[in-house]
Amino acid sequence: MEKSLILVYILLLIVTFTVVCMVGWYGSSDVVAPLIMLFAVVKFLLVAFQFMELKKAHSFWKISLTLTLVLFTVLVISLK
Amino acid sequence: MESLKINYKNIYYPPGGILMWIIIFLELITFGMALLAFVYYGTENATVFHESRMELNTVFGTVNTIFLLTSGFFMANAVHLFKENEVKKSSLYFKLAMLGGFLFLALKSVEYYHKIESGITLDTNMFYTFYWLLTGFHVIHVIMGLVILVWTNYGMTKKNSDTTVEDIEACGAFWHMCDLIWLLLFPILYLFF
């Protein structure tokens, strides 16, 4: 098994548990909602760049995906 | 045996192939727009969305996230091992990835069963209309992904296999796309309101 993949997997699990615990303790207030999205973005990028190996791809693909995700996240947070 | 090399820095050859990445972008944009509509209606009907969200089983959602992340982890290893010409090991990780997918579907079925038993359907309210449609379409993608995984795994293990690294990467990219969609669905549906 790739060491880097194991580390990414552990990080993904930690972030998942952190978000769920955070919502359990503090509810989904206006302060927590952007954090939920921030953690979702971190997980999304980890899967895309590490598991899907987008890190090896041409900058066009990296920038396009990141910009699409950032635009989506900003819209979700601003709508809330 | 030598490891296989592909020039991923070429704009036309992202890992998984350009066609798969066009599909991934289209899927993400489609689900993204539906999720934006969900958040928009959620702010209009904040009480209904909050009460409905509280009825969802966060433990089921979290465990399903772990199933998909674990499955994606095995898939990433399977692709890596195939590139190293370790076909048997790669096939084992393929099967573990599939197991994650089947477990996801099993738990989703239990969740759906509880909802239907409680009389919660598409017509219950706006929240559940989105819930059924978004998770339902995602489940269809997972089922499609599993069909592709089973077929590719069969192809790579048979004698005189003509399965290439590009095939395995495209298969992996589709499977990871199911992860990506769920990583947006889970926080917004189960935690956001």
TrEMBL record, chain A:
The keyword Cell membrane is annotated on this UniProt entry: yes
Pfam family, one: COX4_pro
Subcellular location as annotated: Cell membrane
Keyword terms, alphabetized: Cell membrane, Membrane, Transmembrane, Transmembrane helix
Membrane topology annotation: Multi-pass membrane protein
UniProt main location, coarse: membrane
Protein name in the entry: Cytochrome c oxidase subunit IV
Organism: Flavobacterium aquicola
Automatic annotation (TrEMBL), chain B:
CC annotations in GO: plasma membrane
GO biological process: aerobic electron transport chain
Membrane topology: Multi-pass membrane protein
GO molecular function, one term: cytochrome-c oxidase activity
Domain of life, per lineage: Bacteria
Membrane-spanning intervals of the chain: 12-39, 59-80, 92-110, 130-152, 173-192
Keywords: Membrane, Transmembrane, Transmembrane helix
Pfam families: COX3
PROSITE patterns assigned: COX3
Domain Heme-copper oxidase subunit III family profile, first and last residues per copy: 20-193
InterPro entries: Cyt_c/ubiquinol_Oxase_su3 (IPR024791), Cyt_c_oxidase-like_su3 (IPR000298), Cyt_c_oxidase_su3-like_sf (IPR035973), Cyt_c_oxidase_su3_a-hlx (IPR013833)
Subcellular location: Cell membrane; Membrane
Stated family: Belongs to the cytochrome c oxidase subunit 3 family.
Name of the protein in its database record: Nitric oxide reductase NorE protein
Organism classification: Bacteria, Pseudomonadati, Bacteroidota, Flavobacteriia, Flavobacteriales
